[in-house]
């Protein structure tokens, strides 16, 4: 489990296809603290460390399901990836409860400067079935974008807007996003459980 508080924007140094899977090797400042089998969120996707390398590098494997449902398959050498190690049980929940299970992807449709902060608008494909499962946003609710815990503003049926403060902009891969960029979304798990409870009560 994660909290959506990104520790570092790491750099992809190698991408290697192995059958339908892809091995990603990344460089980050805390690579020497990682161990094999450890879970780390990459752009909000929980991936397992499979090997440790020299020069602050490590490798994770993404399976076909992950590549199909996220932007992990678009990464290449030089890409920046938001990283977060799993929560410790005695730590503060500074963001919100994040599972590291991406629900869908979204496209950045607008970027606006606003007195020091930056507004990003994202649009995603949705259906009544997805809404019934809690795959939606609500005004002032939480959503995870590329692994970053954010507060929703201007929630619409197929889009939403978030405000990014300068610190988050500078320390995550939000600074590399442009209109048309593909991002990972994880909707609030509490909303999903509530939607499921309503669904079951109607049976």
What would the keywords be for this entry?
globular; 15% helix; six-stranded antiparallel barrel; 4 helices; six-stranded antiparallel beta barrel; mainly beta; 203 residues; single chain
Describe this structure in words.
The protein is mainly β. It is 15% helix and 41% strand. The protein has four helices and twelve strands; from the N terminus they run βββββαβββαβββαβα. The chain has helices spanning 64-69, 128-132, 166-171, 189-201; strands at residues 8-18, 21-27, 39-42, 45-53, 57-62, 80-85, 104-114, 117-123, 142-145, 148-153, 159-164, 182-187. The chain has a six-stranded antiparallel β-barrel. A six-stranded antiparallel beta barrel has the order 7-8-11-10-9-12. A hairpin with a 2-residue loop joins strand 9 and strand 10 (148-153). The longest helix has 13 residues, at 189-201. The radius of gyration is 17 Å and the shape is globular. The mean pLDDT is 95.
């Amino acid at each position: 489990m994660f909290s959506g508080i990104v520790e570092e924007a790491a750099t992809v140094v190698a991408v290697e296809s192995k059958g339908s899977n892809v091995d990603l090797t990344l460089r980050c400042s805390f690579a020497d603290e990682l161990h094999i089998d450890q879970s780390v969120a990459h752009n909000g996707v929980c991936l397992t460390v499979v090997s440790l390398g020299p020069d602050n590098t490590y490798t994770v494997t993404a399976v076909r399901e992950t590549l199909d449902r996220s932007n992990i398959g678009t990464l290449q050498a030089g890409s920046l990836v938001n990283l977060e190690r799993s929560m410790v049980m005695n730590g503060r929940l500074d963001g919100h409860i994040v599972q590291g299970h991406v629900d869908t992807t979204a496209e950045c449709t607008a970027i606006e400067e606003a007195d020091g902060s930056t507004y990003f608008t994202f649009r995603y494909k949705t259906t009544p079935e997805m809404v019934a499962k809690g795959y939606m946003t609500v005004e002032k609710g939480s959503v995870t974008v590329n692994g970053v815990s954010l507060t929703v503003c201007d929630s619409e049926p197929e889009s939403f807007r978030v405000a990014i403060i300068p610190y988050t902009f500078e320390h995550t891969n939000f600074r590399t996003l442009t209109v048309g960029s593909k991002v990972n979304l994880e909707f609030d798990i509490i909303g999903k459980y509530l939607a499921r409870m309503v669904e079951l009560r109607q049976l």
